[in-house]
Amino acid sequence: MQNDIRKNPAFRSQFHEMCAKVGVDPLASNKGFWAELLGIGDFYYELGVQIVDICLATRPHNGGLIKLEELCKLLNQRRKSAREAVSEDDCLRAISKLKVLGSGFEVISVGKRKLVRSVPTELNKDHNEILELAQAQGFVTVEEVEKRLSWSSGRATDALETLLDEGLAMIDDGHRDGKRRYWFPCVSSISSYVGAETL
Amino acid sequence: MAGKWLPAAELTGSGRPVLHTGEVECSLLSSVDLECEENPNFPLFKSGLLIVTTHRLLWIPASSTAAFAIPLAAVSHIFSSSSSAKKSMIKTMFASPRVRIQVSATPEGRVEEGGSRSVVITLVLRGKSDQSDSFSGKLWEAWRGRAWESAGDSGSSSGVGGGVGGGGGVMSVRMPVVGVSGILRKEQEMWESTDKSLQDAFQDLNALMSKAKEMVMLAEKMRLKLLSGSNNQASAANDEEMGSKEEMQDWLLSVGIASPVTKESAGALYHQQLSRQLADFVKVPIERAGGMVNLIDIYCLFNRARGTELISPEDLLQACSLWEKFDVPVMLRKFDSGVMVIQSKSYRDEEVLLRIKSLVLKPDALRTGISASDAAITLGIAPAMAKEHLLTAETKGLLCRDVSPDGFRFYVNLFQEIVLDDLFLVKDHGTYSAWVSAAVASR
């Protein structure tokens, strides 16, 4: 049964549902007999360690915000040799446990996607809306933000500058039209991700 | 005085035993007395923690000040309480089971391997009676295993490695309890024995769910009883009461119900031991990092070192919060941003602030300020920690932040030196004039 737990994401997901119905948290402590009988604790706490690793490694690139999809892909690459696939549900559970340690580990929803935050940066509603907008092309301009969200120019610039400060955005001034583009690595599509091989 | 009769055992700074190379913990029991009926001068070893390892029997008092060991090599015979009692019938009717061991001693009566005399030491198990059965079994196993003979030398301690390995052993020990919990324990044993058939049963999760539901309902009742019980108690005067409460919480933990840490109790025995183990483990990373380490880094480091039987983030948090109750040289600290760190108690903010101050007064820094990464490199700490320190310095009025397209930078705070009535007055000596000279020099 230990094997089933480790190899089968669907099995894990059903197990969690069952525990939730009964009112038990199998991941609360690794001393629980759920953990000892099924090894479920070790599975998730180890996953937590790997998630922290990956977030740390990608932070210089994305400022501490990474797409859940992306995180999952990198995790599975790492675990390929053990043939232990992880689902997004698994990641969410592991991260919800990491939350208690401070340091800002959290999953936030931006538009239809989920992003994993690993820094204590607070993102308000304005920032979220910009990130959502950026999902289309990977970047935004001040003009675009003002037009699409009907904001004043001050509001748009403020929000973008904060995102820049926190390392979540990068400036691109190299276009002929002279308009500054703000790129967001955390929402870029996977194919453009540079550091994947090194992990 | 006690050292005269029993060899001493080393303890770490946090009250955990220092294990020798190859020594592994096998069993852990609380509320155990040591008695020696033949020796009138034998001191009173009351209600301590008894640990059976592959090499020794360790006894640690509740205050964790000093510890004693009986080398298993000195044990010549083990009598369980069911075999012929040396004393009168009345004693055998006592609730607390006893395990007697015959050990070799010097002519004066000090317990030692290969001594000429032998004395009998009684282990009085004041914990729950179920424990004595599994305990004697474990003691026999450890004694028969004769692990000390295969080892070359029984000398040096193995430091953190031994502690972690021993910790692994401790964590797998069950804490059986009587009464309703005994029934539930039998339920659990039934589960383990039908493990194979459960492979199929898992296809139909409902069957398992109904069993679990029963158990959890009972567990909830127990938990409520525990919480209301602790409110009625004026103080945890009775040692036995404390022991049973801890066991109860251990058992609740095992069902997946978080153990409540109240003012009176210190939570499950599991977390207490983990707490001490952690205090030992974090010493090295903290030194390396200059006094302060991020909690999440400790989580990764500790679990990686363990390999198996990992701890959950909540286990870690519980263990750290227990440090307040014990006398350990480390503490948990939470910053305004939510970041939590473990720092050594001797760490002082002032030291770091002084270093930041000298850094920020250098001519380069006066001109362009410092960023978190600059501070990190100079101070020799992690960038995330450096940022926290800079923010703290800002709160104290030492630094001012400057947010620009170049990023987030900090400068020394000049506002304190500026006279409001005469804004352009620059005193001859002081930070303001230093800044002016630096700014002018760059042109």
Automatic annotation (TrEMBL), chain A:
Transmembrane segments: none annotated. InterPro entries: ESCRT-2_cplx_Snf8, Snf8/Vps36, WH-like_DNA-bd_sf, WH_DNA-bd_sf. One of its GO terms (cellular component) is ESCRT II complex. GO terms for biological process: protein transport to vacuole involved in ubiquitin-dependent protein catabolic process via the multivesicular body sorting pathway. SUPFAM superfamilies: Winged helix' DNA-binding domain (SSF46785). PANTHER family: EAP30 SUBUNIT OF ELL COMPLEX, VACUOLAR-SORTING PROTEIN SNF8. Belongs to the SNF8 family. This is Vacuolar protein sorting-associated protein. It comes from Actinidia chinensis var. chinensis (Chinese soft-hair kiwi).
TrEMBL record, chain B:
Gene3D superfamilies: 6.10.140.260, Pleckstrin-homology domain (PH domain)/Phosphotyrosine-binding domain (PTB) (2.30.29.30), Winged helix-like DNA-binding domain superfamily/Winged helix DNA-binding domain (1.10.10.10). Residues 9-155 form the GLUE N-terminal domain. It is found in: Cytoplasm; Endosome. The lineage of its organism: Eukaryota, Viridiplantae, Streptophyta, Embryophyta, Tracheophyta. It comes from Actinidia chinensis var. chinensis. Component of the ESCRT-II complex (endosomal sorting complex required for transport II), which is required for multivesicular body (MVB) formation and sorting of endosomal cargo proteins into MVBs. This is Vacuolar protein-sorting-associated protein 36. Belongs to the VPS36 family. Its main location: cytoplasm. GO terms for cellular component: early endosome; ESCRT II complex; late endosome membrane; plasma membrane. GO terms for molecular function: phosphatidylinositol-3-phosphate binding; ubiquitin binding.
